[in-house]
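Treating backbone geometry as a discrete language has practical consequences that deserve illustration. No coordinates are needed to read the tokens, only the vocabulary itself. For completeness, the protein is quoted in full, as a sequence line and a line of structure tokens:
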Amino acid sequence: MNPVPRIAVLLSGRGSNMEAIARAIQANRLSARIVAVASNRAAAAGLEKARELGLPAHCFPLRDRGREEYDAALAAFLRQAGAEWVCLAGYMRLVSRPLLEAFPRRIVNIHPSLLPAFPGLEAQRQALEYGVRYSGCTVHLVDATLDGGPIVAQAVVPVLDTDDEAELSRRILEQEHRLYPEALALLLSGAFEIQGRRVTRKI
């Protein structure tokens, strides 16, 4: 019997995608165990939400450390917790070399646009200002570039004439909560291969 994959979740805010992953595990839609939830912000609502779900939640403050020093300490903490994969769920920091090297091709992110369109902050506002008719969300493996790395899965959301940033964000978030656990199920199964910038299911 194969061991259950162990994941850590990094967040900076409300933690709704962390909760979606946890709920998918509870519902047996995702075979995994969350061994740590960590945030760079002590006030992140996602930490309290994790505790309510019975998950180990930790604040990992910056303490004036540089990016690589911080990520080296964070990587050591996550490995000590037993994490094999790291899921970014609204984690508002760029990941640097020490963390990437500690979890090569095992750091996953979800972004609220159809990458490579609209990377970075306020992707929903970017989409509205650009006038696109479709946006959505992307699950991708993380590399050293901003919202880069091979794409695992995407979901398309139409942009309506009546949309403002809040409404478009709400509808995209609904798809994020569905897509992230589904994409993680593929990755954690190991039944995938990376071809260029695309992650595909092994036949």
